[in-house]
Records
---
Amino acid sequence: MTVLRTQVAIVGAGPAGLMLGRLLDEAGIESVVIENRNRDYVEARIRAGLLEQGIAELLEAAGVGERMRREGIVHHGIHLQFDGERHHVPLSELAEGRTVVIYGQTEVVKDLIARRLDDGLPLLFDVGEVSVEDFETARPRVRCVHDGAPVEIQCDVIAGCDGFHGVCRPAIERHLRQFSREYPLGWLGILAAVPPSSEELVYAHHDRGFALLTLRSSELSRLYIQCAPDERIEEWPDARIWEELQRRVALDGWSLAEGPVLEKGVTAMRSFVCEPMQHGRLFLAGDAAHIVPPTGAKGLNLALGDVALLAHALAEWFRSGDARALESYSAACLGRVWRAEHFSYWMTSMLHRFGDDPFERQLQLSQLRYVVSSSAAARSLAENYVGLAAGPLGAAGLDGLVAGAGLVAVPR
Ligand code: APR
Ligand code: PHB
């Protein structure tokens, strides 16, 4: 058996686990990251793609923002479309000049993996039989199998960054309260080799269901349509997807360009939060602790926000033995998490089709008209969308947090 000794054992090499490893290294703290998939799989997985400005700055401050700065596309507004009209919501004007950046989660993950391997830090792919043990003692352990041989990682702390279907949350489940909501909705998403038809994102409410136009680059569009949560992708040949998109986003004087579909998939929608996000020496971060429906574009931002707080708390603890930030890690995260849960639920409820209830539809339209006609309502959307409404990790919090973790904050 191989025995590894480290300070923090990180389970999961998604954005949360990889970013935690990066921030800890910056603070002089050792970690071992284990991942049950292989590198190609993790780097090919198409996921979300929108970063709040504060989170983009965190990536820069952590030394992994170089490609994002070059290739990411800064957005100052979004469009809301309903009743055959498209309305612009000027996010930056409404939310203290703040912006969001389109840069795929896949790219964030690639940058973090490259940096970790360049730094020569341990990252084990393709591990099996992962278990977390003794986290109620001062000597937690993570066990797994790597290259056919058993591995034991002895550590001070375990970070459960293994997503919604991981093993860390189930290991402490009986100490947690769990809140969840399943929506009767899914999103069918495609990546298409065609320049985006709209420079800014279009969130469209339509009688046939929601649609979203987003992008990855000047050559790549990302598009979504509302579908059933258990929709069979085999029933959606490319031509049918384009036809449905065309109907839902149609607008006089504008057209949606089509192109080869490179990737497609269906994601069911759910909201989920567990409280607290820690037990003993096991700390959960990202999708392992909470899920939001994607309509508010918050999942990736929350995951990276969690690990910024966790890295900061761990740095305090390892440096001085002061456990206060670590003890209040969960509480610090959950304020932001619940704000994002509400915003994501609100966007989801306003924009999707829920059955045939005409009353519901009128309520949605009334809300949409309010958002595009009242500056107070538009500001509320904008502040949430850019991440200003979320609390401690907001504009003011970031510099302190990044400085506290031993990093130099980037000037704005
Ligand atoms: N052992 C090791 N790794 C595991 C295990 C396990 N038992 N179970 C799952 N994993 C890995 C997954 O393969 C994945 O690479 O943990 C990683 C978790 O990554 P994500 O699911 O991407 O979660 P997170 O890092 O929290 O990022 C959240 O991902 O799903 C999106 O919308 C979400 O954007 C958000 C982001
Ligand atoms: C994306 O670009 O994939 C994206 C953007 C905004 C969302 C959801 C997904 O709300």
---
Amino acid sequence: MTAQIIDGKAIAQKVRDEVGAAVAQRAARGLAQPVLATVLVGDRPDSAAYVASKGKACNELGMGSVSHRLPGDATQEQVEALVKGLNADPKINGILVQLPMPAHINEESALSLISIEKDVDGFSPLNIGRLAQKGRTPLFVPCTPAGCIYLLDQAGVKIDGANAVVLGRSNIVCMPAALLLLRQNATVTICHSRTRDLPGMIRQADILIAAIGKIEMVRGDWIKPGAAVIDVGINEKLDPSRKSGRRLVGDVAFDEAKEVAGWITPVPGGVGPMTIAMLMRNTLHAAELQDR
Ligand code: NAP
């Protein structure tokens, strides 16, 4: 069996096109363009690159973006004052505080200040709490896990009743992914570094979402034949055949797994592009909520 490759790049482009069209319609109706504010504390090059690409995506879709940068030694009070100012600014629809912040900053405290209507990353305890509770609806769902579920839906994978394994238990990807799968009636198992017999657990999975940051750790013979495999991992692997000497790979051994799985996302070009596409969608949604 050779898996169907889920083309995250094409699916993300479709989402972006839809958002761009909705933004243009808003403009035609005389409504203000949605505006995303980003907050970057410190000078991590990867975080700076992520923030820049989010701003660029906003501009490409006709949305506004405002970037705020604080030095790495900024105090908790400075970060929180900035978030409060953005909450109060009616021109700002969405607030994204880039993580991780420097170790001396209490992230939970800063994130909990973001107004629920502007929490486009979906990490505020209010949105996560609503996601975790039956019968409640979060205003925003975290972007990467929302992208994983969107990819499954677009590929036509049946989630209802499926055995799903989420590999990893991070706040930003795995826990919300597990909650989203549960909301769609999957039977969900969350595996982590203390799980006994990881291969045996994963072999039960009709759906696997892997986000552990370990180069190709999930082998082909861990995959249940016909399973849907969503690989969130982004890892650099040495590759002397490349000019750069390295290439990006996921947490799943793609070449092995694609011979067993029914569907699989590549790295790069799978989940990665979905994260920004879902952020754009959430920013549009924030503007729509605030129109009311
Ligand atoms: P994280 O916070 O670093 O957490 C890693 C998780 O993996 C932890 O729950 C850890 O278990 C588990 N883990 C680590 N080693 C393991 C092992 N040997 N066996 C089983 N479980 C193990 O993870 P993250 O921030 O979610 O990132 C995970 C990966 O996703 C990274 O490669 C990251 O670059 C990627 N990512 C991609 C996107 C995207 O847009 N595509 C977005 C976010 C993250 P314990 O809790 O027991 O320690």
